[in-house]
Amino acid sequence: MQVKIAEPWKNILNQEFEKPYFKELANFVKKEYTTTTCYPKGADIFAAFDYCNLNNLKVVIIGQDPYHGPNQANGLCFSVKDEIAHPPSLINIFKEISTDLKVEYPKSGNLERWAKQGVLLLNATLTVRAHEAGSHQKKGWETFTDEVIQQISKEKEDIIFLLWGGFAKKKAKLIDKSKHHILESGHPSPLSANRGYWFGNKHFSKTNELLSSLGKEIIEW
């Protein structure tokens, strides 16, 4: 697997690519993509870093796994390509945005527009086998993405981390709370949202209020 990752992410992550675990991971991913159908397409594996410039980073959202259905995953957590039906979690994210910010429900589920404004949409695992959720977990991706979070925590200040659901909340221990901001809630999946753990969290208005207080441009969600 040829790692092509955008500057200046490369500067803080380059050493990871030389570590034994990453070389094993790269071999595993290369073999999987050669022998079976996997998502996202190879060119989009590191799309979260391509669309979000580290120098402009404001917000980090942490997902778990890429979508494993055809034409869904585009390398950004919770995001789908244009013209693709919105998956249940994304529907609930958009419903909350619509209520929280008093805006229309977005037509496109492609969140590249967020990434370009400084939102890192980071899945803990960056690849998956078609129709097999979690099939590339515990192969090394989590080690890499945990390092991404730690490097952001170390190198940056006043980043807003949105941790949705139990899995994402466990990443809080990687973040220096004295210099960053953490907002937590339930996961936007129907199971969690329908139990009252998602709707009304107002994470999108709260994020923008924080950004304004820091003198930064707000996100157009």
UniProtKB/TrEMBL annotation:
<dbReference type="InterPro" id="IPR002043">
    <property type="entry name" value="UDG_fam1"/>
</dbReference>
<dbReference type="GO" id="GO:0005737">
    <property type="term" value="C:cytoplasm"/>
</dbReference>
<comment type="similarity">
    <text>Belongs to the uracil-DNA glycosylase (UDG) superfamily. UNG family.</text>
</comment>
<dbReference type="InterPro" id="IPR036895">
    <property type="entry name" value="Uracil-DNA_glycosylase-like_sf"/>
</dbReference>
<dbReference type="GO" id="GO:0004844">
    <property type="term" value="F:uracil DNA N-glycosylase activity"/>
</dbReference>
<feature type="active site" description="Proton acceptor">
    <location>
        <position position="65"/>
    </location>
</feature>
<dbReference type="InterPro" id="IPR005122">
    <property type="entry name" value="Uracil-DNA_glycosylase-like"/>
</dbReference>
<dbReference type="Pfam" id="PF03167">
    <property type="entry name" value="UDG"/>
</dbReference>
<dbReference type="InterPro" id="IPR018085">
    <property type="entry name" value="Ura-DNA_Glyclase_AS"/>
</dbReference>
<protein>
    <recommendedName>
        <fullName>Uracil-DNA glycosylase</fullName>
        <ecNumber>3.2.2.27</ecNumber>
    </recommendedName>
</protein>
<keyword id="KW-0378">Hydrolase</keyword>
<keyword id="KW-0963">Cytoplasm</keyword>
<keyword id="KW-0234">DNA repair</keyword>
<comment type="function">
    <text>Excises uracil residues from the DNA which can arise as a result of misincorporation of dUMP residues by DNA polymerase or due to deamination of cytosine.</text>
</comment>
<feature type="domain" description="Uracil-DNA glycosylase-like">
    <location>
        <begin position="49"/>
        <end position="211"/>
    </location>
</feature>
<keyword id="KW-0227">DNA damage</keyword>
<dbReference type="GO" id="GO:0097510">
    <property type="term" value="P:base-excision repair, AP site formation via deaminated base removal"/>
</dbReference>
